[in-house]
Amino acid sequence: MTDQKVKVGAMHAAPIYMKKIETLQKVVSLIEEAGKQNVELLVFPEVFVPGFPYFLNSYAPPAQVSAIIEYGRQSVVVSASGGDLAGVREVCKAAKVGIVLGVSQRVKGGHQLFNSLVFIDSAGTLLGTHRKLQPTYAERYIWSQGSGHTLRTYGFDRSESEGFTVGGLCCWENTMNLARQSLIESGHQILAAAWPALSTTEGFEAVADIQIEALAKNHALTAQVFVICASNYVDEACLEWLDKNIGPQTHLEVGGGWSAIVHPFCKLIAGPVRGKEGGDQIVTSEVNLNDLDLVKVYIDANGHFKRPEILKMQKDSKPLWEDDEIAATPALK
């Protein structure tokens, strides 16, 4: 049997906070670096562009209005014909790296925002965009709810061997069991789990990393997939932006983030990398998709280990928003 080995990476890094253009330039350089390391699939943290809106949990709602306006201005327009990601797509093709990139997505010509994962293959093709189904807690100040239409998996082709299938979930969307089951029944082999920094947020210091690791391992085993967990960390520039643009706060500190790659039998095969120690780094590992065959002898959540006559999976895949079809399958539009 021929090994189906894929070198994958979790991007543990901080954005150029609240600066879309500069962060996209950083994304380009990070993809170039991944290409030099022969990474075929690179997963970025949640809303890496323009950075996670940490102000949501650090200030009273009226104090955030100007920050939310600016966040919309710094959000990313995703378009099959170009948009803000044209340069990113070009470098994916040049470096031969497929990516899952977390962005705050702004609807073209409008003000509506989504917490999104953008899937781009190593040919630079925009495969599609997943929009987080349910913004968490105060995130609802900013982002709309995503639809089941964008809850799907994408195939990444390879020139010399069989390709692989990737699904993605954002942050606590990983707690939504039926969202996970929907991806399982779509047949993904790799999950891109995108996170912000949580362990330096007040109230989460002792539990955030435990939660992220538990959710990654849970999905790895129950879905029988590899999980690439990518988190950002909070840097000094982020705190300086908050202080300068909104005011002093005591709810967030420098650091945080938990990035790793998990085998379907729950073993950590790369990482974890935590906090800002060592700065930006790509957590890499070679994964062999043939390992899925062994795991599925024991449990196959999309086959012999499910009881569809007892436990029924139902998903509403209809588009909810006007541009959902374009977001989910831009190549067909």
Content-based structural category: alpha/beta
Q: Summarize the amount of helix as a percent range.
A: 25-40%
Rounded mean pLDDT is 95
Number of domains as seen in the coordinates: 1
> Can you tell me the CATH architecture?
4-Layer Sandwich
Percent strand: 15-25%
- Describe the largest sheet: 6 strands, mixed
- Uncertain stretches: none
CATH C-level category: Alpha Beta
Q: Label the overall shape.
A: globular
CATH fold type: Nitrilase/N-carbamoyl-D-aminoacid amidohydrolase
Task: Write down the Rg.
Answer: 19 Å
Which short descriptors sum up this protein?
single chain; 333 residues; alpha/beta; Nitrilase/N-carbamoyl-D-aminoacid amidohydrolase; six-stranded mixed β-sheet; 14 strands
Description:
It is a single chain. This protein has 333 residues and is an alpha/beta fold. The protein has one domain: Carbon-nitrogen hydrolase (Nitrilase/N-carbamoyl-D-aminoacid amidohydrolase, 4-Layer Sandwich), CATH 3.60.110. The chain has 8 helices and 14 strands. It has a 6-stranded mixed sheet with strand order 7-6-5-2-1-14. The protein has a 6-stranded mixed sheet with strand order 8-9-10-11-12-13, with helices on one face. Strands 3-4 form a two-stranded antiparallel sheet. A hairpin with a 6-residue loop joins β5 (98-106) and β6 (113-120). α1 runs parallel beside α3. The model has no long low-confidence stretch (mean pLDDT 95). One of its GO terms (molecular function) is hydrolase activity. It comes from Hyaloscypha bicolor E. This is Carbon-nitrogen hydrolase. Keywords: Hydrolase. Belongs to the carbon-nitrogen hydrolase superfamily. Nitrilase family.
